[in-house]
Amino acid sequence: MIFKGLKKRSNKRHLNKLISERFVNVDDAKVNKLGVILNLNEIDDIELFRGLAAYLKVRPNKLKVIAFSSNGKEKANAWDLCFNPSDFGWNGTVKNVELKSFLDIEFDVLISYYTEELLELKLLTALSKSRFKVGILQTDKRLNDLIIKTDIKEFNVFKEELYKYLTILNKIKNE
């Protein structure tokens, strides 16, 4: 029990270090690769994100979705990757090789589609090497470059707002 508390504390410390060292460089690179991090306890429909990728003119093979499940690896066949708290070690280390490879992909846009305040989800967002990070309203505003204030169940509103802001930032392909 004591070790769990110490592990959580070391991961929080590592998260704060990652956020404070983050260099934000927003350029006008077009969206070619799209990554999504979500919480299975809040939303579990992958088709929403496939539709979003098509709406943003991202090819289906350039979309990667990972899902977090606090109670184990469920529905793994529908997701690119499903992870849980046991995939994390001390000081923000990731034990899962597939999860590490997801974090190493330099996405043009990473969408953090979760509202629940879970350390593992925050760590993934901070550890990602994506160029531009988008999230829905969360208490820690340091994680994302763009925060769209919507309810998690209002996906169509999020989709329209995301498209609008990516167009303003000149990140949508004109085809």
From TrEMBL:
InterPro entries, per database record: DUF6913
Listed Pfam families: DUF6913
Superkingdom of the organism of origin: Bacteria
Name this protein carries in UniProt: Uncharacterized protein
Originating organism: Snuella lapsa
